[in-house]
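To the wet lab folks,

You asked to see what we're planning to order before we commit. Fair enough. Below is the target structure as tokens, and below that is the sequence we designed to fit it. If anything looks off to you, flag it before the synthesis order goes out.
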């Protein structure tokens, strides 16, 4: 969930509705909920998924809660790792760290970040975060954005050997390439729609596997961990349409009806 709110809507009530939605998902037995980070645009108004998750965790019992995603170019990697390990303990191991480069150019513009460098910045930050979560040795590094000297986390993750980490993948192969490189899983945030290039989820998964196999460190991606985050469509006959293996054109031709807890975006 981004989640999406109508511009001009009472923000306090909108956030409470988001929390109530997760309450219901927990009661209904859903496995996971992912909460995004955005800073501009006006309709995606959760600025800190970690703060939202801390609140939602106190109202739920079973559902796992993930950052969907933390935009790494906007944060110091040590602070990201530190906050998530704290959340891991506070939730008794119900958190997942989802990361991405940042989706909104307007966010990057406010922070004076070159959009052309966001994926590079995510890569270097994720590498540091994975080392910190591993904890086998202190981390020392220097980039044009941050410096660390003999850095270690005070706490080890509650989940063993560490908390789940995933990289967002929308359409370009950059997300799955990083997942393969760092040995983490993938969150597919939408179905590729041939806007930039012709690709499929199967193609992207093969790219991730290739990246993992080619990584000099021998990192291997979590082969069974590729959580898709999609709108769910239900046809007139009551059958749920598996959009992973269907194109948007086929969905439209099937005259399917959107069944989603958020408003459908305008075409």
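Sequence we intend to order:
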């Amino acid at each position: 969930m981004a989640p999406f709110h109508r511009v001009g809507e009472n923000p306090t009530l909108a956030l409470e509705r988001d929390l109530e939605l997760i309450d219901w998902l927990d009661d209904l037995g859903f496995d996971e909920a992912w909460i995004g980070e955005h800073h501009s645009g006006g309709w995606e108004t959760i600025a800190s998924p970690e703060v939202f998750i801390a609140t939602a965790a106190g109202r739920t019992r079973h559902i796992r809660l993930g950052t969907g995603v933390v935009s790494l170019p906007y944060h110091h990697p040590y602070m990201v790792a530190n906050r998530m390990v704290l959340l891991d303990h506070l939730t008794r191991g119900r958190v997942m760290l989802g990361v991405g480069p940042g989706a909104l150019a307007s966010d990057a513009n406010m922070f004076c970040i070159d959009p052309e460098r966001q994926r590079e910045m995510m890569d270097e930050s994720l590498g540091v975060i994975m080392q910190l979560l591993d904890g086998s040795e202190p981390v020392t590094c220097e980039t044009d954005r941050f410096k660390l000297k003999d850095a270690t986390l005070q706490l080890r993750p509650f989940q063993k050997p560490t908390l789940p980490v995933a990289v967002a993948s929308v359409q370009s192969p950059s997300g799955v390439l990083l997942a393969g490189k760092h040995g983490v899983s993938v969150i597919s945030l939408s179905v590729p729609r041939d806007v930039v290039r012709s690709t499929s989820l199967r193609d992207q998964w093969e790219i991730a596997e290739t990246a993992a196999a080619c990584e000099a460190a021998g990192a291997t991606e979590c082969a069974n961990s590729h959580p898709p985050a999609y709108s769910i469509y239900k046809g007139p006959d009551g059958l749920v349409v598996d959009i992973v293996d269907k194109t948007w054109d086929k969905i439209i031709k099937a005259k399917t009806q959107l069944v989603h807890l958020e408003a459908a975006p305008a075409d």
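Structural context that might help your review: Residues 232-267 form one domain. The longest strand covers residues 64-71.

Thanks,
Computational group
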